[in-house]
Amino acid sequence: MAEIRRESILGLDNIRLDLPVAGLGSRSLAAFLDYLGLGVVGFAWIVVSVVLGTQVARGWTPVFVVAGLFLLDWGYFAVQEILGGGRTLGKRLLKLRVVTAEGGTPGAGPLLIRNLVRSLDLFCGPLLMALDPLSRRLGDRLAGTLVVHEREREAAPLLGRVPPGWGARELAVVEAFLARARTLGDPAVAREMAERILLRIRRDAPELLAGLDPGADPVAAVRQALQAEEG
Q: 186: exposed, middle or buried (C-beta count within 10 Å: 0-12, 13-18, 19+)?
């Protein structure tokens, strides 16, 4: 099994949350499986093109073959990733998915962009992934995406109150941090993250910190300030 590397992404106020970044080995195997599937579909299309070129539109077989294979080569990956939340057949089998630089699900635009240069990445992609600490190929760099190992969904805490002006991004980062705080390997990292969140709360809604013990554990203080309960 390919080694899972854990790299960091930037979240709220430069708080770092770890992601299990997929390396060259697992991504190459996923691509191999995808191209096997693409080969089966492509062969089926060639058979259909020959039938169409001989029975329906004589002489058009080469046009059907070339046009169909081009659309399959580009659309196979892009359509699957858009409809599958960043997953293709190969990625599903290896439990990989495409995410944004912040760890979220990318929209259709970035997923289309990352697949526009897939043919070029067949030649330069492996070298770029080997040299990049986040294993990004050219398409990932252009689209601002990463490929990560999927992990079991963590139960997000229920926040009883939040500072005014916080949006979905801030809430997602805080919820992700609180869900993972107990599993972070280094307690000092969890305390540092919690202290940064407390600084942001103090800036945006200092009243939420009223009555909290200044010497309390920062993670517990965040939970108390936001009245977080396990989901």
A: exposed
